[in-house]
Design a protein that fits this description.
The strands form three sheets. The protein has a nine-stranded mixed sheet with strand order 7-8-6-9-10-11-12-13-14, with helices on one face. It has a six-stranded mixed sheet with strand order 15-16-20-17-18-19, with helices on both faces. Strands 3-2-1-4-5 form a five-stranded parallel sheet. It is globular and about 65 Å long. It has three domains: about 90 residues, 3-Layer(aba) Sandwich (Rossmann fold); about 210 residues, Mur-like, catalytic domain (UDP-N-acetylmuramoyl-L-alanine:D-glutamate ligase), CATH 3.40.1190.10; about 130 residues, Protein-Tyrosine Phosphatase, Chain A. By secondary structure, it is of the alpha/beta class.
């Protein structure tokens, strides 16, 4: 069996290692450059590879192809594979049959990283032998090759879900759905929504789907489509006989006739959206029969995720917050919504077709100044130019932070929450967040 891996990054190299271990004839092809560290791993494992090209004669003879999530379906080589009827799958689909481990799959436009990390924290604190993979850290395939975990918490993007055929998580979570990556879905929101719901398409009556019952797109889909999984909703406004909800400043989760309660003020993560992430993670913990005391302790000591509403420093009574992971409008909505002091907002980058109107009421209420950090800021200036008193443009992070410091007063907050991708001025959102933190520490 010939396995061709498109893309020589984390998921590609991990898949190659697992494929080789399982007796496949493996070839890795990357149209870009493969990092030296990954080349070394491929060479050490005796795996053939090429970069900066796709040699069709070495690819179109595959029995199965694993496509890295970053490569679009529209890529010429992918179209040729599909025409030939060669299965093109994701790393998760390839690796899942080689493990008996139970998987918890988490997707959503926002909140999935926090929910994934929090769920992992809850299960690990309870002493479970659990791995963490998907969009985070070491590839799922490579961890399956090492075969040392009984269960995995997987953060799954819509691109990873597009490449599944038979994979099903025992527990699935959809945190929320808002327009994102529409450039990959023919600019049709319904295609993106369907893509997210692939997480439940193979689930059976034995499995669970945990979802945000306040989310319009999710509720609509569930109204017109069926899943066999047992549904477990969570909500900030509704209550359920089975599910999780907030009532009188208390989070309650009722699952399998067992009730769990915790005061919301004891939850380490702040903000309404984080209560949702906590309800989703708690629901998993209850399904995995983790003790109440362990759940309480884990929710109260969780540190949060880097680059997601991360408090960096307080300088002269001004709080600096790094929310670089907010790469779409919906994520920035959560960030602005959780601000309680006058805010200097650093925003901008590569626009994915953003509609800034959703933020208008929050900007009027909370934002005293906007600093645009992008190559092209026209849309942001058009949207908010008449709404805030101060609107500035910069083209590097140091200037953004220095400028912010100049216009703040005691008690203000400086919030980096870009609502955009980072590729115009930075390598990725992590690089953007690190540069922000460095600039703040250098003030």
């Amino acid at each position: 069996m010939r396995l061709v891996v498109l893309g020589g990054g984390e998921s590609g190299v991990g898949t190659a290692i697992l494929g080789k271990q399982k007796g496949y004839d493996v070839f890795v092809s990357d149209f870009g450059k493969i990092k030296d560290s990954y080349k070394e791993v491929l060479i050490k494992n005796g795996i053939d590879w090429e970069d900066e090209k796709h040699t069709e004669s070495l690819i179109l003879n595959a029995d199965v192809v694993m496509k890295s999530p970053g490569i679009p379906e529209k890529a010429a080589i992918v179209k040729k594979l599909v025409e030939k009827g060669i299965p093109v799958i994701s790393e998760i689909e390839f690796a899942a049959p080689f493990t008996k481990a139970l998987t918890i799959g988490i997707t959503g436009s926002n909140g999935k990283t926090t929910t994934t990390m929090l769920t992992y924290h809850l299960l690990k604190s309870a002493g479970l032998n659990v791995g963490l993979a998907g969009n985070i850290g070491k590839s799922f395939a490579e961890q399956v090759a090492e075969d040392k975990y009984d269960s995995y918490v997987l953060e799954l993007s819509s691109f990873q879900l597009d490449g599944i055929i038979n994979y099903k998580p025992h527990i699935a979570i959809i945190t929320n759905i808002s327009p994102d990556h529409l450039d990959r879905y023919d600019y049709k929101y319904e295609n993106y929504i369907d893509s997210k719901f692939r997480i439940t398409m193979n689930q059976t009556e034995e499995d669970y789907l945990i979802y945000d019952a306040d989310d319009e797109a999710i509720s609509e889909w569930l109204k017109y489509n069926k899943t066999k999984a047992k549904l477990i909703p969570f909500s900030l406004t509704k209550t359920f006989e089975e599910g999780a909800f907030i009532k009188d400043n208390t989070m309650e989760a009722i699952i399998n006739q067992e009730e769990f309660k915790m005061e919301t003020e004891s939850i380490a993560l702040e903000g309404k959206h984080n209560f949702k992430n906590a309800m989703a993670a708690t629901s998993v913990a209850k399904l995995m029969q983790i003790r109440k005391a362990t759940i309480r302790e884990s929710l109260s000591n969780f540190q949060g995720v880097e680059h997601r509403l991360e408090k960096v420093l307080k300088i002269q009574n001004v709080q600096y917050i790094n929310d670089s992971k907010a790469t779409n409008v919906n994520a920035t909505f959560f960030a602005l919504d959780s601000m309680t002091t006058p805010t200097v907002w650093i925003v901008g980058g590569v626009d994915k077709g953003n509609d800034y109107n959703e933020l208008m009421a929050l900007v009027r209420e909370k934002v005293k100044a906007i600093i645009c950090l992008g190559v092209d800021n026209r849309k942001i200036i058009d949207a908010f130019g008449n709404v805030v008193d101060i609107m500035l443009e910069v083209n590097n992070m140091n200037d953004a932070v220095k400028m912010a410091q100049r216009i703040t007063e005691k008690g203000d907050t400086v919030l980096l929450s870009p609502a955009c991708a980072s590729f115009d001025l930075f390598e990725n959102y992590e690089d953007r967040g690190r540069q922000f933190k460095e600039a703040v520490h250098n003030l």
